[in-house]
TrEMBL record:
Keyword field: Signal
Native organism: Actinomycetospora endophytica
Record's signal peptide: 1-23
Top-level lineage group: Bacteria
Stretches for region Disordered: 363-387
Lineage of producing organism: Bacteria, Bacillati, Actinomycetota, Actinomycetes, Pseudonocardiales
Protein name: Beta-galactosidase-like protein
């Protein structure tokens, strides 16, 4: 096991006393978007002792370099209440909520190949040096606000959802259309973030057969995509380094949506110089989990992959096949490397878990939440009640160290019809 995976598992194992063989099949239990409210802590389900608490950059630092002391005190109190109640806390870094002043920084605007900027407020968290400097300074402040030494994880992503990757099709209104590496920083090196590099084919747009009067080779297209997808991993590594510099020593959780581009699909795409799209827009999002997770493991010791869609719509579809293809198996990592034709029938969770296991990365995961696009679910997802019933079994089969139910509000309010007792039945089953 790689050091990063071992470190990530220790906080679970030391608290439970369970040996590693048990941890692979018996995940820790938690909730997403926890308020750590006293009344909820009083009704906490025994055994559900991990909480994801989300920070917000725009609330902590609404003015550059100025901390909102009231928000900081409230966040500290929230985290401390959970910790003092015996609940382990994973802190969402909140980098996906940049303040208005960050959006106004030079070079902060993302640009696609048509020079469009996102319509959803996304900034260039990957290539912009100004955004990187501001983000690192924010993380250093954040680690002074919360009891960082007591945290068992900090989430770091690059997208507006707080996940790994570039914005998806929702950012430009054109399905699977935008490649987000056409600002001055990635193309000309102007204001480029430390640790990043300029495009290996400046000015080239995927799909174009030529560059500077010469034919674009398959290898050149492959190298361009490696640069593009590798940049999001480097951005996460740089934010993780800022956390380490601030004194945080625990695991860094990297939320991962979808399944990434499959090796066979990536090869087919480079053969046509990337003039194609793949499921979920993974190509343009820069999501290459098979190729990128080993780099993540090397660059971010203590990295943990957080699968954000356990029992999503792809699992529902795979479950309906004959035979079903929804559950992880011990041979999945080998099948992933072989490029088995069966991979296309696998759900997102199975592909992502296989890629993480192959890279020696620890895993946690959460269900997508209510079947609505704004939560991560779709109209083809299981109901939230069925997610709570099925997702823990998937978590066990895929070797997750923790299952985090999304969302806490759906257990303690009437909006879903679920109650803490429903979760208790899962934990005790």
């Amino acid at each position: 096991m790689r050091l990063g995976a071992l470190v990530a598992l220790l906080w679970l194992l030391t608290a439970s006393g369970a040996p590693p063989a048990v941890a692979a099949t018996s995940p820790a239990w938690g909730v997403v978007d926890s308020t750590c409210a006293p009344d909820r802590l009083a009704r906490r389900v025994p055994g559900v002792d991990v909480a994801v608490v989300e920070a917000h950059w725009d609330r902590l630092e609404p003015v550059a370099g100025v901390v909102d002391t009231a928000y900081a005190a409230g966040l500290r109190d929230t985290v401390t209440r959970c910790l003092d109640a015996g609940v382990r806390v994973v802190l969402g870094s909140g980098l996906q909520y940049p303040p208005a002043w960050v959006r106004a920084l030079p070079g902060a605007a993302l640009r696609d190949q048509a020079r469009r900027s996102p319509t959803n407020g996304a900034v260039d968290t990957v290539f912009s040096g100004a955004v990187a400097v501001a983000g690192d300074a924010y993380l250093r402040r954040l680690m002074t606000v919360v009891p960082a030494a007591r945290l068992v994880g900090v989430r770091v992503g690059t997208s507006t959802a707080g996940e790994l990757g570039y914005p998806g099709p929702e950012a430009s209104g054109a399905a699977f259309d935008s490649w987000w590496a056409f600002g001055d920083a990635p193309q000309r090196g102007v204001g480029l973030a430390p640790g990043q590099s300029v495009s290996p084919l400046p000015g080239w747009v995927p799909g174009q057969p030529t560059w500077q009067g010469r034919a674009v080779s398959v290898e050149a297209a492959r190298a361009w995509f490696r640069w593009y997808s590798g940049a999001v991993v480097r951005a996460v590594a740089d934010r993780a380094a800022a956390l380490r510099a601030a004194g945080y020593r625990g695991p860094v959780h990297v939320p991962a949506a979808g399944r990434g581009v499959l090796p066979a699909d990536l090869e087919a795409a480079v053969q046509v110089r990337l003039a194609t799209a793949v499921r979920d827009g993974a190509l343009r999002r820069g999501l290459d989990y098979v190729g990128g997770f080993p780099a993540l493991a090397s660059a971010v010791p203590g990295a943990v992959v957080d699968i954000t869609g356990i029992d999503d719509a792809t699992a529902v579809r795979a479950r309906g096949l004959n035979p079903p293809a929804d559950r992880c198996t011990s041979g999945d990592a080998a099948a992933l490397l072989r490029g088995s034709a069966a991979l296309d029938t696998w759900p997102n969770q199975r592909v992502t878990a296989a890629a993480a296991h192959r890279a020696g990365l620890a895993l946690v995961g959460e269900n997508p939440g209510p079947p609505a696009p704004q939560t991560g679910g779709t109209d083809r997802s299981d109901s939230e009640r069925d997610q709570l019933r099925r997702a823990p079994g998937y978590a066990r089969a895929c070797g997750l160290a923790a299952f985090l139910f999304a969302f806490e509000d759906d257990l303690y309010t009437t909006r879903s019809g679920l109650t803490p007792g429903d979760y208790a039945a899962v934990v005790g089953g």
